[in-house]
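Blinded run. Sample ID left blank on purpose so nobody reads anything into the name before looking at the predicted structure. Input follows.
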Amino acid sequence: MSIEETDIFKSIPNKHPMNGLIAPLFAGHNNIKERMEGTAFLIAPRFALTAKHVIAEYLESIQNFRVEEHSKPGAHHKGKLAFCMFMPVLSKRGQKIPLVIEGTYFCGFGDIALLRLRLGNKKDNWKDLGPYPSLNLIPPKVGSKISSLGFPNSSTKRNDENVVELHTWPRISYGAVKEVHKDRRDSLLLNYPCFQVNAQLYGGMSGGPVLDKSGSICGLVSKSYDLLPGEEPIGYAASLWPSGMIPLNDLPRKTNDTFRLIDLYKSKRVKVNDLHNVRG
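Blinded prediction complete.
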């Protein structure tokens, strides 16, 4: 697919604060061809966010894990992957740092998944990354300017030496919020809190961050529609506040109470600007 670059859809500037903190998701297994689909972004050392449907596609096609069985109201998923998955990010000095995904977490509400990470090389350090972004859990208002980041058209290729080459195309797309759906847009396709934007969104950008005018992350890319030439783009971002309900029960904690992502937010390990507006 050929995607034209314009003033509102172009390469991510080198000095953009999220440059180096976002990456395509790469997966490999002995029995399958390497794949690179979707986008993820760091929110703190050892943690990243992406779209649940991106992780679902990997789990179902490679691990034969039926995500819908764990996506009913009140259900959740946590666990290790039976295949190798990593996200290649950049250090502050521009050096490549592979982050290995050790576990995935999501609940039955929303299109958000949390990724638990470890450094792929012992010589690397979490201090080499950052500064990490801040989050706004409550979606922006209609008319607000936004930008979305991701990796459309990413692909892999084995060269003559049988080494896997990663071909990525980091892009930023500008637009505005057209509608906000507090609980859901419908009961089938977008049955979770989301907001509509008119930024151009393409395959491979799912899971990428959506930033508000202050530069804080206010959502993640969830869905887009193919339109005819000249039509205004229609895309949807998942609101972030449902992410607080994701259980993290296998992480170290001081009590036996249910540990959720909102508790990680409260610990200030993740920067959240409007936590006071979210119950939990």
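Unblinding after everyone has recorded impressions. Residues 52-62 form the longest helix (11 residues).
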